[in-house]
Amino acid sequence: MPAIDRLLAPSERVHLVTREHGVVLAPAFLRTSAGLAGLGALAYAAARAHVLGQARPAVAILAGAIAAVLILLLVRRVLGWHARRLVVTDRRAMLVAGGLSRRVEVMPLDTIEAIEVRCSGLGRVLRFGGLVVTTRRRRGLLFGLQRLPDPDLVFGLVLGLDDQIPASPRSAPSAPRAVTLGAAPAAP
User: Fold this and answer.
1) What is the pLDDT of residues 61-109, one digit of tens each?
2) What residues does each domain of the chain span?
3) Which of 38, 59, 132, 154 could form a disulfide bond with 46, CB atoms 3.0-4.6 angstroms apart?
4) Which of 4, 8, 173 is nearest to 90 (CA)?
5) Which backbone phi and psi does 165 adopt, to 5 degrees?
6) What are phi and psi of 70, to 5 degrees?
7) pTM confidence score
8) CATH architecture, range 2-20+84-165
């Protein structure tokens, strides 16, 4: 986590580091598997086809080269998934993406006006979903992440951290919010 530590303020604490659910890799694995099966069938048919004559090795070499490209594309997709992380601190949410070149998107938690969990049927079964946030009258998925693992837990964390942030002057309620960690709330 040294790369993430460089992005934090001195008193900022990390509460969550996660990446999208592994189900986002399923289409890439299915494409690669189908492509490899098709290329294997093509190479097998070419090896048995006497009509091709001397071209049989060329067809097998071409099928092998295409298979290597498919595998490299899959490795690239897995590495991209691995390098893309959602980091939630006590002040902000960050999406850190990239290995050699890095992109960081930041959303301060005090700008979140409303938050909800959105899960599809498959997401409820496999426990993934997205967080829909409203900030400054704009509404959308948090960093476009549709398949966060355990979205209810992430929702609770972000909601709990947001409640600990003092109200900003632009949206201050009539009575100031005060939060004391570890102490019982004062009676009104």
Assistant:
1) 888 899 999 999 999 999 999 989 988 888 888 888 887 888 888 888 8
2) 2-20+84-165, 24-81
3) 59
4) 8
5) -80, 130
6) -60, -40
7) 0.71
8) Roll (2.30)
